[in-house]
Design brief:
Order of helices and strands: HHHHHHHHHHHHHEEE
Mean pLDDT: 85
CATH topology of the largest domain: Glycerol uptake facilitator protein
Structural class: mainly alpha
CATH architecture of the largest domain: Up-down Bundle
Keywords: Membrane, Transmembrane, Transmembrane helix, Transport
Protein name: Aquaporin-like protein
InterPro entries: Aquaporin-like, MIP, MIP/Aquaporin, MIP_CS
Low-confidence stretches: 30-37, 258-263, 286-309
Organism: Thermothielavioides terrestris (strain ATCC 38088 / NRRL 8126)
Membrane topology: Multi-pass membrane protein
Number of helices: 13
CATH superfamily of the largest domain: Glycerol uptake facilitator protein
Strand content: under 5%
């Protein structure tokens, strides 16, 4: 339930901002009044960024805050997350996005119905970028006929996000505190929306599949068949995330395990190493400036356990 709630918390504000953008841009009554200028990709990026931060703050203490099937699989591969829990987590994540899509349709039902009727009357498709279905899930632009190009965009965006997430989860990373991690991860999503939403990204299997099912219910099965894009939006997230987390684990990670093997020496000696591990940056000495047997150094480790020498 925590995983489903967390995905709901991050998807609902995001797609609500997309609804605001799409509906105000398409409305013949609102555009002349300048209301459409309130919405932009900048606003949408912030909605997803803060939604993710709030989701982590609210639900991660219970479930660990995966909120993405690819992250769940990566944690099972690299961090020992129990494989028996993986199917339950993935189902819950997709379900959370599905419920968010249904709630959004209910809250904007009047406006979406009017937009749908106007598109039908004008002979425009209901499933396309800028059409009513795009409120719920992404679709390529009409000129994005090269799916290899779309694949690479999705792959690199998802890999970027996975590296940032893995860096935030690294206990040896001195630059991200547990309190700051939700906002760092959320801002990473915001940056990707600001940079690449205009050329089509989905970023998360659960977020895309859950809302795409809702789009298929209300706007037809073309939500899955349009330009044969849905396999990219749903599945590319997994190999991209596995690649990025493998890259971090093999190339970038410099953690306690390396230090424990005696392959690291701090430039300030043992006391500097204690400061590094404790992340408090200070040592309390009975005899300042000495490093003899009578000196006692202490600090708090990252999990609150005193470290004494």
């Amino acid at each position: 339930m925590a995983e489903a709630t967390g995905v709901f918390f991050y998807v609902l504000p995001g797609i609500a901002s997309v609804a605001n953008f799409t509906l105000s841009s398409a409305s013949p009554t609102l555009v002349p009044l300048g209301v459409a200028t309130f919405s932009s990709l900048f606003q949408i990026g912030w909605a997803f960024a803060l939604g993710i931060a709030f989701a982590i703050i609210t639900c991660a203490p219970t479930s660990g805050g995966h909120f993405n099937p690819a992250i769940t699989l990566s944690l099972a591969i690299w961090q020992g997350f129990p494989w028996r829990k993986v199917p339950y987590y993935i189902f819950s994540q997709i379900f959370g996005a599905f419920v968010a899509g249904l709630v959004l349709m209910g809250m904007y039902w009047t406006q979406i119905s009017e937009m749908k009727a106007a598109f039908i009357e004008a002979g425009k498709p209901l499933v396309a970028n800028g059409a009513p279905a795009s409120i719920l899930c992404s679709f390529p632009n009409p000129d994005q006929t090269n799916l290899g190009y779309v694949f690479l965009i999705e792959f690199f965006v998802d890999a970027f996000l996975a590296v940032v997430i893995w860096a935030c989860l690294d206990p040896a990373n001195p630059f991200v505190s547990p309190a700051g991690a939700p906002f760092a991860i959320g801002l990473a999503y915001g940056v990707m929306v600001w940079g690449f939403a205009n050329v089509t990204i989905s970023t998360n299997l659960a977020r895309d599949l859950g809302t795409r099912i809702v789009a298929a219910i209300f706007f037809g099965r073309e939500a899955f068949s349009y330009m044969t894009y849905s396999p990219i939006s749903i599945l590319v997230n997994i190999p991209a995330t596995l690649f990025a987390t493998a890259y971090y684990e093999i190339v970038l990670k410099d953690s306690f395990m390396i230090i424990a093997k005696g392959h690291a020496q701090h430039r300030d000696g043992d006391t500097g190493l204690v400061r590094h591990l404790s992340k408090v940056g200070m040592i309390e000495n009975d005899e300042p400036g000495t490093d003899g047997g009578a000196a006692q150094t202490s600090a708090m480790s990252s999990d609150g356990v005193p470290v004494k020498r």
